[in-house]
Automatic annotation (TrEMBL):
Transmembrane segments: none annotated. Residues 85-380 form the AB hydrolase-1 domain. The active site is at residues 178, 346, 375. It comes from the Eukaryota. One of its GO terms (biological process) is regulation of seed dormancy process. The keyword Glycoprotein applies. The lineage of its organism: Eukaryota, Viridiplantae, Streptophyta, Embryophyta, Tracheophyta. Belongs to the AB hydrolase superfamily. Lipase family. SUPFAM superfamilies: alpha/beta-Hydrolases (SSF53474). Residues 1-21 form the signal peptide. Keywords: Glycoprotein, Hydrolase, Lipid degradation, Lipid metabolism, Signal. InterPro entries: AB_hydrolase_1, AB_hydrolase_fold, Lipase_euk. The gene is 25485394. This is Lipase. Gene3D superfamilies: alpha/beta hydrolase.
Length: 405
């Protein structure tokens, strides 16, 4: 173990991480166009921007997308009650709401749902580029990054659901991918949140992580990269920065082949357009917090789906117990319809962990198994419409919420 820690320190020193990262993050981001301006309006889809505030002061970007069809625009905007049912899209780790619009309108779930008449809402969690900071904290302040997926579930997702419910006066559908499923599972255990959800489709669903097989992630966990980064005062993770990109590359030595960096993290993806990777990287990855990574690695090490583990003393202060409380999946209402889709090549949402999740749920979800899919295929596969999105739409429409349109 000592040699691993020394190697990690050497990596951090070699890329100047220790020297320049105690300010809690990089310089403030340059002014950027909105997600509507960047990806959705240019594709011909009406799009509105909203800013909502969480209970702990974070300002989240939320977009609302309508069909590109002019007749549909007239139809769905004439009166509020004539809109289709609302559906909220929740992105994965190091991603944001743009993840649902990176392919053509015929291939991207966000566009497809809009064209099917759904009232599409696009979520962006705290820290991502399409959200808007904090009412009082600067992104340079370490307290700005003092959160994990626990807060994303109990504050960010809760506020998104509350806001959409208040605007539409309707229960909503939820679609989550990867981290979006982690926060959904956690939020759905809370009665005040789940009562406003009609049904959910969870892609690459994760509540347990102790059987992941991604080589690069497992190596980072073994080297305790998450703990070392936190110890060195790095609070923001931004893999668009040179030093964090170099950190990943440095882990790919002769003992771990990362000739395909993406596959070493996600598993082999079968079906996305590799010629568009440069375009995808114009949007991704988005920042997250080192505490969030630490929480995810706790899940790998402990095999639990629990709140953040601060250690015994602080746990006692925070939770009134030496151990962090679990998110009890059996508390998700049996009456909540779920569709869960997983892939045979997914190195993050492992089949064994998926089965563990199924056993703890009180209901029997509708399951879609895609043998060749890796973790990224669920949002970027060129075949996803017929493989996955059409079944999701059929699942949602089976709830009968289009009857008034």
């Amino acid at each position: 173990m000592g040699s691993v820690w020394l190697m990690t320190i050497a990596i951090l020193l070699s890329f100047g991480i220790i020297a320049h990262s105690f300010d809690g993050g990089s310089a403030p981001p340059k002014q950027q166009p909105t997600l509507c301006d960047e990806l959705i309006l240019p594709a011909g889809y009406p799009c509105s921007e909203f800013v909502i505030e969480t209970k702990d002061g974070f300002l989240l970007g939320l977009q609302r997308v309508s069909s590109s069809s002019s007749s549909a625009r007239i139809r769905y905007s004439a009166q509020q009650q004539q809109r289709g049912p609302p559906v909220l899209l929740l992105h994965g780790l190091f991603m944001a709401g743009d993840a649902w619009f990176l392919n053509t309108p015929e291939q991207s779930l966000g566009f497809i749902l809009a064209d099917q008449g759904f009232d599409v809402w696009v979520g962006n969690v705290r820290g991502t580029r399409w959200s808007h900071g904090h009412k009082s904290l600067s992104e340079k302040n370490k307290h700005f990054w003092d959160w994990s997926w626990q807060e994303l579930a109990l504050y960010d997702l809760a506020e998104m659901i509350n806001y959409i419910n208040s605007v539409t006066n309707s229960k909503l559908f939820v679609v989550g991918h990867s981290q979006g499923t982690i926060i959904s599972f956690a939020a759905f255990t809370q009665p005040d949140i789940v009562k406003k959800v009609e049904a959910a489709a969870l892609l690459s669903p994760i509540s347990y992580l102790d059987h992941i097989s991604a080589p690069l992630v497992l190596r980072m966990e073994k080297m305790h990269i998450d703990q070392m980064i936190s110890t060195m005062g790095v609070h923001q993770l931004n893999f668009k920065s040179d030093w964090e990109t170099n950190l990943l590359i440095s882990l790919c030595d002769t003992r771990l082949s990362c000739s395909d960096m993406l596959s070493s993290i996600t598993g082999k993806n079968c079906c996305f357009n590799e010629s568009r990777v440069a375009y995808y990287l114009e949007q991704e990855p988005h920042p997250s917090s080192s505490k969030n990574l630490n929480h995810l690695f706790q899940m790998i090490r402990k095999g639990t789906f629990s709140k953040y583990d601060y250690g015994k003393l602080k746990n006692l202060i925070e939770y009134g117990n030496f151990k962090p409380p679990k998110f009890d999946l059996s508390r998700i209402p049996r009456s909540l319809p779920l569709l869960m889709a997983y892939g045979g090549n997914d190195a993050l949402a492992d089949v064994t962990d998926f089965q563990h999740t199924l056993k703890e749920l009180p209901s029997t979800p509708e399951v879609v198994y895609l043998e060749n899919y890796g973790h990224i295929d669920f949002i970027l596969s060129l075949q996803a419409k017929q493989d996955l999105y059409d079944p999701i739409i059929s699942f949602f429409k089976s709830m009968g919420k289009f009857s008034s349109i």
